[in-house]
Amino acid sequence: MAILSQTPQAAGISVHSRDGARFLLVAGQPLNEPIAQWGPFVMNSREELETAFDDFRSGRF
After folding, report:
1. How far apart are CA 31 and CA 43, in angstroms?
2. Would you give the distance in Å from CA 13 to the centre of its chain?
3. Which residues sit opposite 43 in a β-bridge?
4. How far apart, in whole angstroms, are the C-alpha atoms of residue 7 and residue 27?
5. Residue 52 CB coordination number (10 Å)
6. How many CA atoms lie within 13 A of 55 on its CB side?
7. Is the dihedral of CA 37, 43, 5, 13 positive or negative?
8. Parallel, antiparallel, or unpaired for β 36-38 and 41-43?
9. Cβ contacts of residue 4 below 8 Å, gap of 6+?
10. What string of H, E and C letters represents the secondary structure of 8-61?
């Protein structure tokens, strides 16, 4: 994972590989919100994560 700079002075990136390489570039605006991650779930708080797991386990997800 890399966070690329958006400043005009940014040099960019250079990648070298003996066996080739593939990239997935994802772009978006920063959320500026708290992030809580557990397994496949990403929420804003531990409480929201626990609710998501409960929903998943009970089949409501």
Report:
1. 12
2. 20
3. 36
4. 15
5. 19
6. 9
7. positive
8. antiparallel
9. 10, 12, 13
10. CCCCCCCCCCCCCCCCCCCCCCCCCCCCEEECCEEECCHHHHHHHHHHHHHCCC
The SS3 assignment for 47 reads helix
Cα distance between residue 51 and residue 39, in whole Å: 14
The per-residue pLDDT for 34 is 94
pLDDT of 47 over the 90 cut? yes
pLDDT mean across residues, the chain: 88
Structure token digits, residue 12: 């960019």
Q: How sure is the predictor about 41, in pLDDT bands with cuts at 50, 70 and 90?
A: very high
Residue whose entry in the numeric block shows the structure tokens 């929903």:
55
Position 56: which residue type? F
Global confidence as pTM: 0.54
